[in-house]
Amino acid sequence: MRLLNASGCLDALTAPEVAAEFDAFVTKTVTPLPRGGNPPIRIAETDVGMLNAIGLANPGIDRFLSEHLPRLAGLTVWASAGGFSTHDYVEVCERLDEHEEVAAIELNLSCPNVDEVPESVEETVAVARKVTRKPLYAKLSAAVADIAETARAAEAGGADGLSLVNTIKGLALDERTLQPLLARGAGGLSGPALRPIALAAVHACYRAVKLPILGMGGVATGRDALELLAVGARDVALGTSLFADPGAPARIRSELEAELAAHGFAHPGNAVGAAHRPEVSTLNPRLRVNGKKIPA
Amino acid sequence: MPKRERRRVVAAEPVGPYTLLRVDRAGLKAGIPGQFFMLETPGRLLPRPMSVCLATPSELAFLIDPIGPGTRALCSVQTGAELAILGPLGNGFDLSVERPLLVGGGIGIAPFPYLSGTLGGPPAVLGFRSSWHAEAAALVPNAEVVIEPTYVTDAMPSGHDVLACGPEPMLDAVRKLAPRAQLAWEAPMACGYGACYGCAVEIDGELKRLCVEGPVLAAA
Fold this sequence. Notes:
Chain A is α/β, with parallel strands linked by helices. Helix content of chain A is about 30%, strand content about 15%.
């Protein structure tokens, strides 16, 4: 299992010591042209999560390659690629492909904070596939009728893996004015509210496709990471929990180790998909249910 | 980047409508006035950014306006509770000024007690919406207080190096009178260390992350 940051949740240039805690650093989404992003206010907290409407703020592919990428030396870099047409994805992926410092590309097919979205997951993955041989992960939204269908489309397009899940559109109002807190109105909901949604999405996609899954959505503890592994994630990413605690990567790794040991998994890989194998009891003899020892 | 540390709350004292949250300093750097800490907020997902209001050898204190669920939770913290705090963060005021004048509005006076002490008690003009809010002016020496409908810009003497903190309309008005003023801005912030891009504010058509490029920015 590798631990990564979720795209857009860490800047390795301003917090290099946090980025170094991960097995790979995922960049903010890069688009062909620079973007300032949405006007402020761009974030808000709710009782169950966090809303953001950053709006793909990024320096554009030219400046990313010339100014940012050289400063990420020493990190395993996954570049998140975004755009507003299949042509945009082709352009970004073609340029990224020329740089050996880029270990993998994550296609952001699901940003909730821009109005134009790519029409077809399969088509977008397929055109990107044609211009790069780097590992290609498709980042999907759970806000669809059947995410397994989207996963099959990504697989058919030639994706090497899935990143599940992106945020889901939500809105919060100011308690006094009853106006939306975010300037854009709605934003992407992340944090604890996203956790069961991520579990359902990974669970469904693990059954639908053979692709490895990078699971993310509200992971704040080792237990949360273990559950994502159990529903089928091979790797795990942290997002919102990084904001409250830049020490989260080390803490969650150590909590996960304890969780794996308590469930009798010698290796994180053994936990992957455990929720799909009811015949495999993960109960350690020391565990109790309702105070009673579980018979082996 | 500083490490996140747990610290004990020494007291949470009312100051007018605000609360002065005092925490055990125990080796923490106070930073430069205008810098801030992210304070763990009980029962909430995200920490809250608060500038250092007072720094003594044994304590750091933060002045908090209970305007939402997070700030209300922080104002209700009990003495003896522990909070995880991360800081100092961001860029503070440039202290190499010859004739400093502190100009603050409302909860924007929060960094001034520490700033005033560091600069040797320069004159200050502080504006509040009511005399109840103005009780916080007692934390700042040499302060002239104005209360709405009088504004700080009505009382600002000229010929000073202005260091200002307050609501955006106040900062906009101050920089029209003092184009070289240093302005401390605020915005909702999720992380405080440049990760979330949430605190970007548009200043003269350019978006700046207040936690990294700010919160103190030159007016021009």
